[in-house]
């Protein structure tokens, strides 16, 4: 990376630094996770202040620093105003950005993860089923992180899944057929056929179709458990925003 550089990114979080500065985390297309400081940004007359808001999609011009980079110029591409007007949407957006930040590397180009986050935030503004949107996002993020969940065939024996009773193994990252589940000693989650059908559509990347349906609460609960356990087992993380998001969605 050169001393001065350009990056396009989503602001995932910020924190106060010193009397008037702030530190920002940017999930960027070109350089992965970038941590940078904006000088005097908390002063009333700062020209950067309006652009450097959490969840904003920005173009930034930065200077490489020893510990933190320096934000020199910035302009907003998209501010996602409709998301910021709704507490539920804010909770979902913060969860997606924190999950992305947890798997993205610093100083490493991550265009696929960046594009997934941007497109998901755009869908969040307009989608009819935002709960399924989150699960489609989780499915794709896991795949991009090297953990593609298997729902079309048994994760153990690779036989095609039939309509019989099946279970999901978060540890193995896929569905087990009735025969293979007998020898599995790890935590298993029972799957209804409706849930399995939704998950199979995710595997086939029929995301636009899924965002048009509205599954009942029991199916949503099954899906939430599957992805919560998968993220915990495969990525080894528990996010602060996940608790906030799940609490908000219960009300």
Topology:
Layout: E1 4-17, E2 21-28, E3 32-38, E4 57-63, E5 69-78, H1 81-84, H2 87-103, H3 111-126, H4 130-144, E6 166-169, E7 174-176, H5 178-181, E8 189-191, H6 193-203, H7 207-210, H8 217-235, H9 240-249
Parallel strand pairs: 3-5
Antiparallel strand pairs: 1-2, 1-4, 2-3, 4-5, 6-7, 6-8
Helix pairs in contact: 2-3, 2-4, 2-9, 3-4, 4-8
Task: Write a structural description.
By secondary structure, the chain is of the alpha+beta class. The protein has 2 domains: 4-80, OB fold (Dihydrolipoamide Acetyltransferase, E2P); 127-249, Recombination protein O, C-terminal domain (de novo design (two linked rop proteins)), CATH 1.20.1440. Helices cover 40% and strands 22% of the residues. The protein is built from 9 helices and 8 strands. It has helices at residues 81-84, 87-103, 111-126, 130-144, 178-181, 193-203, 207-210, 217-235, 240-249, and strands at 4-17, 21-28, 32-38, 57-63, 69-78, 166-169, 174-176, 189-191. The strands form 2 sheets. Strands 1-2-3-5-4 form a 5-stranded mixed barrel. A hairpin with a 4-residue loop joins strand 6 and strand 7. The longest helix is centred in the last third of the chain and has 19 residues, at 217-235. The protein is elongated and about 65 Å long. 33% of the residues are buried.
């Amino acid at each position: 990376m050169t001393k001065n550089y350009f990056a396009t990114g989503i602001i995932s979080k910020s924190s106060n630094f010193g009397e008037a500065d702030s530190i920002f985390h940017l999930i960027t297309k070109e350089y992965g996770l970038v941590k940078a400081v904006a000088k005097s940004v908390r002063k009333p007359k700062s020209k950067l202040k309006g652009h450097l808001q959490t969840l904003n999609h920005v173009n930034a011009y930065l200077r490489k620093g020893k510990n933190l980079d320096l934000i020199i110029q910035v302009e907003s591409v998209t501010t996602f105003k409709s998301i910021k007007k709704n507490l539920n949407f804010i909770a979902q957006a913060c969860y997606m950005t924190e999950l992305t930040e947890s798997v993205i590397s610093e100083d490493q180009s991550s265009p696929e993860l960046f594009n997934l986050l941007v497109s998901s935030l755009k869908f969040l503004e307009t989608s009819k089923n935002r709960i399924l949107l989150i699960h489609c996002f989780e499915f794709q993020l896991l795949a991009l992180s090297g953990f593609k969940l298997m729902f079309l065939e048994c994760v153990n024996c690779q036989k095609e899944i039939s309509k019989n009773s099946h279970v999901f193994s978060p540890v193995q990252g896929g569905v087990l057929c009735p025969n293979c589940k007998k020898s599995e000693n790890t935590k298993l989650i029972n799957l209804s056929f409706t849930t399995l059908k939704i998950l199979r559509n995710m595997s086939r990347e029929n995301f636009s179709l899924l965002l048009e349906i509205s599954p009942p609460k029991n199916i949503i609960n099954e899906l939430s458990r599957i992805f919560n356990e998968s993220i915990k087992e495969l990525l080894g993380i528990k996010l602060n925003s996940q608790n906030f998001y799940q609490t908000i969605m219960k009300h």
